């Protein structure tokens, strides 16, 4: 039954688990604060004490609100990977490459376990790191890399492990969700809401990774790998951000019974030449009675649909030092318990290598919004393009001047049909001088 | 790092994990179907094959839609605990005592791991069973005992393990939630809705355990033990069912911006003589913007609030053979992986033994509904009782004849105040011939 090691740990027969932390920003300080605040409880649950022995960061002197004088200091964080008094390296530096990756490789080379909150590094180099962990019989854990404090990596790795998942999707970026739900509440447009979000700390000074959907794509690629047993394929996540979404679109969606959310979605579809992985991040219209519709502010939520479990929802704070520290320390406790195994739920050699799916064949209802010149024939031109591309229109609204910048908006919802047809219709209108800007195309999730 | 056993399992160096299943009802058949349907996937994730070797049930010949001819048969299920070809016993018989408990004891006596879906047995005998598992270094897992397919036992045991939980609460009984949300949708009263639920299979022929809140109390006691690190104390769960909830109450709640849900809730409060455990199951008014409000039909949902994680929500199907089998097999996979440890997240010896809390001191807003005789002075009598008990009334509605059975209903919402005052007010009215029935008192969750 191979349980003895776990139990011996739980019955307190083992020495403390010794932690080396690289990166002492808000999350690193949060981890230290958490380990202190809940020390006894954590020792009881882990079956052994968890002790920070060494730390590394850019500036040693900086005030972080936590006392680090009791920990050994390394100017070169990579050295944490070879310290004799470190069992597990906690990487909280960030960045897909550079120091974080160098440290992670050093940790495995030094026979340490690795806990990281670094979604970019896991999305880009997760397979390499998992192979190194596998080869060394070492721990690689990254609960904090996806959806902050929500235990969704464990939820898929342990909770739905008996299931063939049919679909994994959700709201994985708190910044975008804050912006979209604030636009919803205030009627304000994207630009001013972003500025407000930055002022309130919900968006970074350079928000590109968030608002362009890259951050959500990192997390989606990780969830898809665990959920479907496929190799990480971040490069093929089709990603659209929220920059083009206007207050007028949110108002139209509301009138039609929908909200707009940035949805990250992955599933496996059978193409002519076998199963393919479809991974997409894009703003969608979400029906108001869908479990993801009420998810507002910086909250994250993940839906996993299994062939036996049915539809499961995991929801909670998607970021913040407290929730992220909670996920990091949960991983440390797992390691202390001896609950260590394949980071992506099965050995790397058994992960399937699927190519990217061609989404064109999918049937969807779609919301389209055009900004047009107010002159005769424009509607005829648009509707003709729809007809020629075999797109069936369910409803159409033309919104006259007084909308954004006095432009005329034409918004429509299509009947369910192949995505490719909608793309074709937009193509047919490409370059038309009736249009004053790029059309917005949002799929509808009911 | 104690990871080698896990990895050796994951790298396929181990023999199959051999399962003996007791109880072949819909869940037992579901487990066999799941192990067959997802066989390869499960072997990859478990790191080894999982084989059913022996089964036991009441009737051998019965058609269950699955082929059991390949498994050894035991007429006496207790014998599964001593078979040499069984590593893990799966108990799907049910009942807090009797055969299920006898089998579980036999399993540990025989050095087997135990996976059970039996909430009643775990709520009543979980400590004894966990001690036996601990003593033998054996697995005891019961994900399926709480909230069907939702991995909330793992969610609290592994997901929030770094946190001091402040509160665990949720919707833990699908039958009650189906009835209440159906009453909400149809306006029908309790009795007829129950009959309909029975016809549709959402309520059992004898629904007592469900509608009286006992089933939810079993689950709550288990979650409280894991979440707070306290000894199981099912006996002290204060339980009120949904039988007294009328269509008129749901209509009043709706008018006030609330829905009515059966809420199971546990927390630890500091009483004069130290920390005490408060466990309650009762119908509550839930604000429509609360994450539990949209939870309808047989769906379950659990909210866990941690001191670092913040508020986490776990939601999904609360029952059914598929979701329950998904939870049972997830436990089996954990055992195959070697992820085995303290069933209640810490060793039994370290669970705190708290007495039950006195709820009277809690501050709550409350909904009260009286059925009264339509005659002068009744309102004066009720409002005088409120005044004398120091209960401050926020709003009051008298609903004349034409309501249920032509009775007169008086419904009110109080300002936030001590629960004890409301109880006192109801006491003052006890025996008054103005009242035609027991008052209904529902706390408000905002």
UniProtKB/TrEMBL annotation, chains A, B:
Binding site for NADP(+): 22-29
Binding sites annotated in the UniProt record for L-homoserine: 204
Documented EC number(s): 1.1.1.3
UniProt entry tagged with the keyword RNA-binding: no
Keyword terms, alphabetized: Amino-acid biosynthesis, Methionine biosynthesis, NADP, Oxidoreductase, Threonine biosynthesis
First-level EC class: oxidoreductase
Catalytic center residues: 219 (proton donor)
Chain positions recorded as NADPH binding sites: 119
PROSITE patterns, A to Z: ACT, HOMOSER_DHGENASE
Domain ACT: start-end pairs: 367-444
Annotated InterPro entries: ACT-like_dom_sf, ACT_dom, Asp/hSer_DH_NAD-bd, HDH, HDH_cat, HDH_CS, NAD(P)-bd_dom_sf
One GO MF term attached to the UniProt entry: homoserine dehydrogenase activity
GO biological process: methionine biosynthetic process; threonine biosynthetic process
The family this protein is said to belong to: Belongs to the homoserine dehydrogenase family.
PANTHER family, per database record: HOMOSERINE DEHYDROGENASE
Protein name: Homoserine dehydrogenase
Species this chain originates from: Erythrobacter longus
């Amino acid at each position: 039954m191979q349980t003895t090691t776990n139990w011996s740990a739980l019955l307190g027969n083992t020495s403390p688990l010794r932690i080396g932390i690289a990166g002492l920003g808000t999350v690193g300080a949060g981890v230290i604060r958490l380990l202190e605040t809940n020390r006894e409880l954590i020792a009881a649950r882990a079956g052994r004490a968890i002790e920070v022995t060494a730390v590394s960061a850019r500036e040693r002197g900086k005030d972080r609100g936590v006392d680090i004088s009791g920990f050994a200091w390394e100017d070169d964080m990579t050295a944490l990977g070879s310290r004799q008094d470190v069992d597990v390296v906690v990487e909280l530096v960030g960045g897909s490459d550079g120091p974080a990756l160098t440290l992670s490789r050093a940790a495995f080379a030094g026979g340490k376990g690795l806990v990281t909150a670094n979604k970019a590094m896991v999305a880009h180099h997760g397979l390499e790191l998992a192979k190194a962990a596998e080869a060394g019989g070492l721990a690689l854990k990254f609960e904090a890399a996806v959806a902050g404090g929500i235990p969704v990596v464990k939820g898929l790795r342990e909770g739905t492990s008996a299931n063939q998942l049919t679909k994994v999707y959700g709201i994985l970026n708190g910044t975008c969700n804050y912006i979209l739900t604030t636009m919803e509440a205030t009627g304000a447009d994207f630009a001013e809401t972003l500025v407000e979000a930055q002022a309130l700390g919900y968006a970074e000074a350079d928000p590109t990774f968030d608002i362009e959907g890259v951050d959500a794509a990192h997390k989606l690629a990780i969830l898809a790998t665990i959920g479907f047993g496929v190799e990480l394929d971040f490069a093929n996540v089709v990603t659209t951000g929220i920059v083009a979404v206007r207050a007028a679109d949110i108002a139209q969606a509301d009138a039609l019974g929908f909200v707009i959310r940035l949805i990250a979605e992955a599933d496996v579809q059978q193409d002519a030449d076998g199963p393919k992985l479809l991974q997409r991040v894009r703003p969608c219209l979400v029906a108001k009675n869908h479990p993801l519709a009420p998810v507002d502010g910086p909250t994250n939520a993940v839906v996993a649909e299994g062939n036996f479990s049915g539809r499961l929802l995991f929801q909670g704070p998607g970021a913040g030092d407290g929730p992220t520290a909670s996920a990091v320390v949960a991983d440390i406790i797992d390691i202390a318990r001896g609950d260590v195994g394949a980071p992506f739920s099965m050995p790397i050699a058994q992960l399937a290598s699927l190519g990217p799916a061609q989404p064109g064949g999918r049937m969807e209802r779609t919301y389209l919004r055009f900004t047009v010149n107010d002159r005769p024939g424009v509607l005829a031109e648009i509707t003709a393009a729809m007809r020629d591309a075999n797109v069936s229109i369910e409803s159409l609204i033309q919104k006259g001047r007084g909308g954004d910048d006095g432009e005329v908006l034409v918004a429509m919802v299509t009947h369910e049909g192949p995505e490719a047809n909608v793309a074709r219709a937009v193509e047919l209108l490409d370059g038309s001088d009736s249009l004053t800007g790029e059309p917005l195309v949002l799929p509808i999730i009911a």
